[in-house]
Request: fold
Amino acid sequence: DPALVLCYRDEYKLALGEQRGDFHVLLVNEWLAQEINARLSVKVSGEPWYFFGHCTEVTALPGAPAQWAAIFAHFGAKLENVSVGCCGMAGTYGHEVTNHQNSLGIYELSWHQAMQRLPRNRCLATGYSCRSQVKRIEGTGVRHPLQALLEIMG
Reply:
C-alpha cells in the first residue's frame, strides 16, 4: 500500500537518523522504473488500462501516475490516469462505523462516476483501501497494477 511505504520512508529517517545506512524505501513503481529500460521495447497496443492512484501516493508523489504509465508502455500497454480524489477510506477513517456515511459520500464525489463509465476489468488501483472500498460499494473489485502487468506479460 503506497501510504504505508511512504510512512516507512519517513519513519526510517526519523528513527534511525545517522545509523540508517545507505538504503532507500521505494514504492514498487519507483523500483520498477529504475529497473526497466527507459526506451520502449514493445509497441503500445490494445485497450487502455485505467489508473486510480491512492490519494496519499499522488499527493506526495505527483509523478506516480506518469511513472506507472511508463512502466506499462515498456510492456506494450497503455495506462491512462483517472483524475479522482480520495476514495473515502482515508486510512482507517472509512472503516469506522461513525464515518461510514461520510466515507460513502466521499466515494460518490469522484470514484463512483469513474467506475460507472469505465470498464471495471480495466480499472486498477494502487491502494489496498481503495480496492476494498470499490469492492464494498460496487460489488466487484479492481486489481493492483502489478496484477495487470502479470496478465500482460502472460
The first strand starts at residue 49 and ends at 52.
